[in-house]
Write a structure and sequence with these properties.
Blueprint (H helix, E strand, L loop, with lengths): L1 H11 L3 H6 L4 H20 L3 H7 L4 H27 L4 H19 L9 H30 L2 H32 L3 H27 L17 H12 L2 H18 L2 H11 L4 H29 L1 H24 L5 H12 L4 H5 L1 H8 L5 H29 L4 H28 L5
Length: about 450
């Protein structure tokens, strides 16, 4: 087993084993371990929020709030959090403080089943509250990562971090699902959810410890905290608007995300209502996507090293463009193997999905200035979250307008296919225009 794991990591992620062990690559080791920890935490909590809410008595409306409320809170905190982070001497302080706040809220969520008739309301409120520090963690981590890691080292560190996280994500998803399935009663399942919350809180403390071990720009005392000045903030927004490279990237990236997010609910409708997939089949889809990303991570990392991160994302977008065809073809086949055909096609078409996590962040970091870095990231992330909250609703609305039947599903996925091809063309055009830049 140990040799198999070594082979998988060593072959699929270039020089992963040797690179992690090398004394000079302490930062890579620490960021890889930190990535594994946040993956464990997100799978223990985020993957089971709907199930936890259902077992606390949530109906369809409350389940909608499980997704919507954290999104709203996250969007509200992004810009203020980005401004505050940029004013700190050491961005790591914001990263670790945010994680400690998330841990505190997760501990409280673990106790909500004891609140009787108020437990569902308390769960929704605390879950939304936890989104604020978790959102700040995400944006401040990106700024902190770019401070600590030289651009030449980002690709290899993100490849190792993402690859190990995919592998751990599959393992924890299978384990968590098996444990919940083995519980006989609803009360026993709720106890497991409580344990997951408290375990996630403990892992967050370990994550803070790991981050404290990573060297920081401000550790030598040469970097001073910035004073919060409204004139400086006004200038920061003005500079952002006039940053042509940032505006060019954000225009292409947000169009890409809009075409990606639009079918998230429609995909679930197609899988469950028209392909008849149950919980097991849905887990096969998620696991298959994680495995294909892990197996191809090394390929895309090497392509990034040779051709640059702006090049490989074209193929990530192209792969996502083909996914609507998988839904159209599989739901057009009147056979019992339709689910299996969809599973195979979906995995194959996600051959370059790893580039979305590996490349887009690096493309973003290429175009943001050092001053007010986190504010720029916050503006970008706010637009992505807005797309994530709005576009699935747009997709379902178009589906209903077209008749809410199989024919309507095929039509809307055909529209999405065309939009994603356009998005791929924009990534290709951006690469072509910037091909001579370092």
């Amino acid at each position: 087993m140990k040799n198999s794991l070594k082979y998988l990591l060593g072959v699929r992620i270039p020089h992963a084993i040797d690179a992690i062990r090398a004394p000079r690559n302490q930062v890579m080791r620490l960021f890889a371990f930190e990535g594994v920890l946040i993956t464990l935490i997100n799978n223990l909590v985020g993957s089971h929020n709907n199930l936890f809410a259902s077992r606390l008595g949530a109906g369809d409306y409350e389940l909608g709030l499980v997704t919507m409320l954290p999104q709203l809170v996250g969007m509200a905190i992004l810009i203020p959090g980005g401004i505050l982070t940029d004013r700190l001497r050491n961005k790591r302080d914001m990263v670790t403080s945010a994680l400690l706040a998330v841990a505190a809220v997760y501990i409280l969520i673990g106790f909500v089943p004891a609140l009787g008739s108020s437990r569902l309301g308390a769960f929704l409120a605390l879950l939304a509250l936890s989104s604020a520090p978790m959102t700040i963690y995400n944006v401040s981590w990106q700024a902190y990562f770019s401070d600590v890691v030289h651009p030449n080292g980002r690709n290899s560190i993100l490849a190792v971090r993402s690859g190990m996280s995919f592998l751990i994500g599959v393992t924890i998803t299978l384990t968590g699902g098996a444990l919940l399935s083995s519980a006989a009663t609803n009360d026993e399942k709720i106890v497991l959810h409580q344990i997951f919350m408290w375990l996630a809180a403990a892992l967050l403390l370990v994550q803070v410890y790991v981050l404290k071990k990573i060297p920081s720009k401000a550790s030598d005392g040469t970097v001073k905290a910035k004073r919060l000045d409204l004139a400086d903030l006004k200038k920061a927004f003005k500079d952002l608007i006039h940053n042509r490279k940032f505006i060019g990237f954000i225009s292409v990236a947000i169009f890409f995300y809009m075409t990606w997010h639009i079918d998230w609910t429609l995909y679930y409708i197609g899988q469950t209502q028209y392909l008849g997939m149950n919980e097991a089949w849905l887990s096969y889809i998620n696991i298959g996507n994680a495995i294909i990303q892990f197996l191809t991570m090394g390929i895309w990392s090497r392509i990034n090293s040779k051709r640059g991160v702006r090049f490989a994302i074209i193929f990530g977008s192209l792969g996502l463009s083909l996914c609507p065809l998988a839904m159209i073809i599989s739901t057009s086949i009147n056979t019992g193997n339709a689910k299996l055909i969809f599973l195979i096609m979906n995995i194959l078409f996600n051959f370059a999905l790893a580039t979305t996590s590996l490349n887009i962040l690096q493309c973003l970091l290429q175009v943001i200035p050092e001053d007010n870095k986190t504010l720029n990231i916050s503006v970008y992330t706010t637009l992505v979250m807005l797309s994530n909250g709005l576009m699935p609703f747009v997709g379902v609305s178009i589906y209903r307008i077209l008749g809410a039947d199989l024919g309507a599903l095929h039509k809307v996925f055909a529209i999405i296919f065309v939009l994603r091809i356009m998005g791929t063309g924009l990534w290709a055009l951006r690469w072509w225009k910037l091909r001579n830049e370092a």
